[in-house]
Amino acid sequence: MPTDNPKSRLPTKQNDQRSQREVMESGDLYLADDAGLSAASRRAYLLTREYEKQYVVSLTDAHKVLEELLGSVAPDVHIKPPFFVDYGEYITMGAGTFANFGLMALDVAPITIGKDVLLGPNVQLLTPTHPVDIELRRAKYEAAKPIVIHDNAWLGGGVIVLAGVTIGENSIIGAGSVMTKDIPANVVAVGNPARVIRTIE
Fold this sequence. Notes:
By secondary structure, this protein is an alpha/beta fold. It is built from 4 helices and 20 strands. It has helices spanning 20-26, 35-57, 59-69, 134-138; strands at 30-31, 72-73, 78-79, 83-85, 91-93, 98-99, 103-106, 111-113, 118-119, 124-126, 128-129, 141-144, 147-149, 154-155, 160-161, 166-167, 172-173, 178-179, 187-191, 194-199. It has a 7-stranded mixed sheet with strand order 3-6-9-14-17-19-20, with no helix packed on it. Helix 2 runs antiparallel to helix 3. The chain is globular, with a radius of gyration of 18 Å. 31% of the residues are buried.
């Protein structure tokens, strides 16, 4: 009886002329230690450190750093440092959004944050995924799925949002919850994994 050979499923570039960035952006398995991606990640790290420095001196100058770092950010977005990203350029934040200390937004895939969103301290938005397949994981392949947080949502302190999750408009996520599935609009969800416990009238 034939057996499945994990090594036969290792991604190959023989017929794929895309850069690792292009592969990553498509959502396919890619190698994160690619030189170009490593340089982009280091650039983002340096900009987050610069943001923290400027935040102490001038919120106006700090916001200019955010504009350089993020894909799109409204003029009145307020993020309390420290702030952690993978690349920054795949993050968009709408008007009136506020993030408390310690936001971690790993944007290997797009992270779209709407208007008037409240993010408590130490919220984690985690788009990266790793293969279940042992050989693929050992070979250091990874992928990612986008995260969307709609307008006026509120994520309590320590909330973790996993890859591919969408949170609906006006919804509230209780502190410490782990979001493994989409949450509809106008509800309260809590727990690990989070579940809806009530509707917001």
